[in-house]
Amino acid sequence: MSKRLLEVKGLTKAFGGVVAVSEVDFHLNQGEIVAVIGPNGAGKTTLFNMITGVLPPTSGQVFFDGKELTGKQPYQIAEAGITRTFQNLQVFENMSVIENVMTGVHCRLKTGFLQAGLRLMGVKKEEQQAFDIAMSCLEKVGIADLAFEPAEVLPYGNQRLLEIARASASSPQLILLDEPMAGLNPQESRQLVDIIKKKREEGMSFLFVEHDMETVMGISDRIVVIDYGKKIAEGTPAEIYENEKVIAAYLGTEDEEEAI
Amino acid sequence: MNHSRVNDLYNRHYGGLFLFIVVLAIVPFFVNSFFLSVLILVGLYAIVTTGLTMLMGYAGQISLGHAAFYGVGAYASAVMTGTHGMPGIVGVLVGVILSIVIAVLIGIPTLKLKENYLALATLGFGIIIFTFFKELKEITGGLNGFFGIPSFSLFGFSFDTDLKFYFLIWVLLIIGILFSKNVIDSRVGRALRSIHGSDIAANSIGVNIQQYKLKVFVLSAVYASVAGSLYAHYVTFINPNLFTAMESINFLIMVVIGGSANIWGGMIGAIVYVLLNELLKDIVPVFFPNVGGEFQIVFFGVLLVAILIYMPQGLAPTLGKLWGRLVGRKSKKQAVTGPPNADATVGGSK
Amino acid sequence: MELTSQFIQLIFSGLTIGSIYALVAIGFVITYNITGVLNFAQGDFAMLGAMLAITFVSMDIPMGLGIILSIGIVVLVGGIFERTAIYPARNASLPTLIIITLGVAIAIRGLAILIWGTQPRSLPPFTENNPINVLNAVLLPQSIWAVGISVVSLIAMHYFFNKTFIGKAVTACVVNRSAARLMGIKPEWMSFISIAVSAGLGAIAGIIIAPISGATYEMGLMIGMKAFVAAVIGGLTNAPAAIIGAFMIGILESFTEGLWTSGYKDAISFALLLLVLFFMPNGLFAKATGKRV
Ligand SMILES: Nc1ncnc2c1ncn2[C@@H]1O[C@H](COP(=O)(O)OP(=O)(O)OP(=O)(O)O)[C@@H](O)[C@H]1O
Ligand SMILES: [Mg+2]
Q1: Contacts of C292 in chain A (CB under 8 A)
Q2: Are A88 and C290 within 8 A, CB to CB?
Q3: Is A86 an 8 Å CB contact of chain C?
Q4: What class has domain B31-349?
Q5: A85-119 tens-digit pLDDT
Q6: Between the CA of residue A242 and those of A118, A208, A227, what are the distances in Å?
Q7: Sequence ranges of the domains in chain A
Q8: What residues form the membrane-spanning segments (chain B) (predicted)?
Q9: pTM above the 0.95 mark?
């Protein structure tokens, strides 16, 4: 059995009176693809925000690779090896596509203000290094030909791919994807599934939120189900498929279009 | 094949710059003394606005308090050289150190704030510093001002004529711009711009956003302080009213006119601002004999609004294209000529 | 005895100036709630109101009429400002909008110098201004006018936003844009109404302070800044908290001035601003919120 990469214990977030996430525990092993599902407003994004340090948890702990990450800043968590994409796209619209991804390489490089300003030795080499890494990330998601375009002119689907390229540029051990398929057409979705599978073969792990059940069932090793902030089920796709609580949770919201 | 293209990422050809420097070197010998003094003023302002451009245009952090750093530099130099008879460089360094200390103290809490609050906090901080200039009368001379600041000298060489001073200022400015340009075209520059693009995403991919904001704030304060020091030596007399909130706003107007997402924007803005100002001073009285400097205030207020609405990228992109044609550079793709920034307006994400 | 009367005196002047800040601060809060913009021209509406009223009175127009005319004109100016500068830039980034309002503020200031010059001017008191003696402290009737009018205006605002159709629509718009649309009111007009109303409040503030401390072209900057501080204390969105903040600033200022020095008066208020921003960036009375991703 491979080692535990991510371990979440009793993670809780309250916004004033609203408890968005309540006492959630789960783990993710190295090389796994784990899906987090649940109806709208279940607390999935909030869970991601706590794991990546965007929001401080009200209580609970996050461990990664044996070290505690709770209360750390997002950039520290990225340095530790977790990056993410966003449900509401957060592409750097003021940069070109390649620069977006080169920014993703940030924590693997060292150039500081003085070194850069004086263009000391090593800066040029690092630029080349960042560029090469970024280019190969763009090639992997298939948008290398758009490298020099301003990121803001990219169509929605490509912006999603760009976020994934950017998140993978620092070669993190774990990437969190928040609804990566939202707004993609079926062909783009399939392409994205291939990308995720290929990256997993390279040793990356994924935790992702997704409403598209076909994808979820298709690529996840395990699934964590959240409803009203609480974990109601966890298991393999086959187990989840038959779990009554899950069915009830989704039936309860069947009239909303995100149901299975 | 792709790998050579890292060189296409940023325009780092210096042919145009060389030509520009040649022009700068020749110009002072063909203009009268008044125009020379105008060019010196342009250079001083441009040093401030270049730093401010990095802060506002690239990192997206608004500041309405930079006249304070300009003033700190000016008073540090005035006091060190005028009161204590120290060499000019000591004044500059004291100003820089003071500005760094103040910028760090103010920056740490202030830069956690967003847009509206940041604007307010920097404005408030500027007014507090102004109050100190005004009230610390034993040191600064208060509202009566500080007289008799000696001319700047460095290693025994005295910059005692306008011509010498012109070269001092413009050499410094070019160095300042090149330094900034180098910073922008690097890991650091991308980190700064990523904060502007989306601070949350920047943070989540490993950019320590507080630290970068603080560093660029400090850097811009240093630029302003150095310019302030030299300004004090140049005019030999300073008083607190030169460093008011209005002066901070003037710097901001220059940055916006020039175009905040272009490293030459600060300089272009300073040139256009000062020249327009002088032009209006000459022209307006011809038509309205009773009108004084107030017309300029109205004019720049309206110009600021108009540029932000109709030309949010400022003049730099347009002028950049013209200049490129002038020096015969083949225009490559847009990404080559500058940051492809359509919403190049000042500050934060939407 | 001496001390109590001085104390009361300082409270009186603090409340007077605080009531001015309250009016301008409420203008900020209204504009901010509806447009999300911090309007740096808000204080200059006060200056405009004062200058116009002074001009009308000097033209022998009856004072009451002159005041109403001035307020009307400033409301109009506010509306024009919104249509020409804010509306066309409504999709720009926030800092851009802030700088736009700054541009308008200095344009108004410059215009004021063009028209009225740089000399301070003053407005006669609204009524006979014989000092009233209260517990050995001197109370000027104009101060009563100032506090009274601002309280009445604030109550009127409360009524406007909670009881009238337009006001309720504006409030609805803050909560839910489509709800406002359902009520047949275009959200685009909300920013127009909010800025015009705020301009009117600013004008009232300027007019009631003019007989007390006079009027100059640059008075708007400081009034505006102090009102900002007040609004920030209220977290920018909370009107009652902003009013409390305004009176706090007014009293703090009058005590600094009366007991220590007028030189550092402004620095003290802004130091308070910075303290509030640093330690309670959402105001003294607000709950935390954040951008969602
Ligand atoms: N910053 C915040 N402040 C206050 N409440 C919040 C905040 N972020 C989320 N919430 C609330 O927490 C709950 C969970 O929201 P969250 O965005 O995590 O849900 P989600 O599962 O990601 O939903 P969706 O599928 O729609 O993306 C919701 O009730 C939401 O309104
Ligand atoms: Mg979500």
Answers
A1: 45, 88
A2: no
A3: yes
A4: mainly alpha
A5: 999 999 999 999 999 999 999 998 988 899 888 98
A6: 63, 21, 16
A7: 4-259
A8: 12-31, 38-58, 64-82, 89-111, 117-133, 165-184, 216-237, 249-276, 297-316
A9: no
